[in-house]
Hints:
Blueprint: E1 2-7, H1 11-21, E2 27-33, H2 40-53, E3 61-63, H3 78-84, H4 106-117, E4 121-125, H5 130-138, E5 149-152, H6 168-172, H7 174-181, E6 187-190, H8 192-195, E7 199-200, H9 202-209, H10 214-228, E8 237-238, H11 240-249, E9 254-259, E10 261-263, E11 273-275, E12 287-293, H12 295-318
Parallel strand pairs: 1-2, 1-4, 2-3, 4-5, 5-6, 6-12
Antiparallel strand pairs: 7-8, 9-12, 10-11
Amino acid sequence: MKMILDLDTGIDDGMALAYVLGSEEIDLLGVVGTYGNVYTDMGVQNVLNILEMCNEASIPVYEGEKHALKKPGFLRLEVSARIHGENGVGQVSMIKAQRNKEDMPGVDFLISSVKKYKKDLVIVATGPMTNLASALIKAPEIAKFMGPVVIMGGALTIPGNVTPYAEANISQDPYAAKYLFESGVDVTMVGLDVTQRSVLTKESTRKWRETGSTAGSVFADMTDYYIGEHDISIGGCYLHDPSAVAAAKNPHWFQMLPMHMTVVTEGAAAGRTIGSQEKLRDVNPNVKVCIGVNDKALVKDLDDTMQNLFTRCSKAREE
């Protein structure tokens, strides 16, 4: 499976990246950074650092958009700095990568990759949808042959996590999400309806540390910080962004509801992901909304995959 990740890295984005790196069936063509949990340049640097730490420095990293379609800039929310740490990775120190991002803009990389691989390319986006919408606006012809897009974002059957209506990624740029949903592209929405059902505990981070690798220790520290920012009654952390990777890898783990989706862009309900009333009776809806998940299978696969990745990193260091 050929894949591009579109991340605002972020602790759980970093976990999603490691999940992909450890998945032998995925060929990661590149990573595009964006804003959201962090500023775009910070997210890009975090990706570069993680890739080098995991012995994957050959994977190219691109800088995406720095703010929403209809906003002049982006100001990081205080809650994002608290949940993910000022540096985006739980205040954990990583060695700065010895390479820089690619010169090509991230949006252009998305467009060229879709034109090259067409339906064979899967794009997983775990931040705001600005990069995807920008690519579709700049090159509208790619919508006809674009492969599956799996997003972490939205909430259909439960309240949002930044307002009663809106989930964080969608709320950052509701216009971009609306454009993506209504573009005709095959979209799978992995929202809070399922991401809050899968919980990772410190039992997993303990096993990652036991691999003896730097990557295992760093991700364990990052994830423990993230767990500490969750309600203690949960007993761990939600697997928001890794759930989108899981839906791309193993869609059979998810119960999906096909719908024509849209996004409210104005007023108190801005950012709400909801079925389009105008297209309620139309056939062939393009958005599959995840409403159920085999959380035990997902958590085990994430845990095992990351543990195997960190073990591989430890062996590479010994060699």
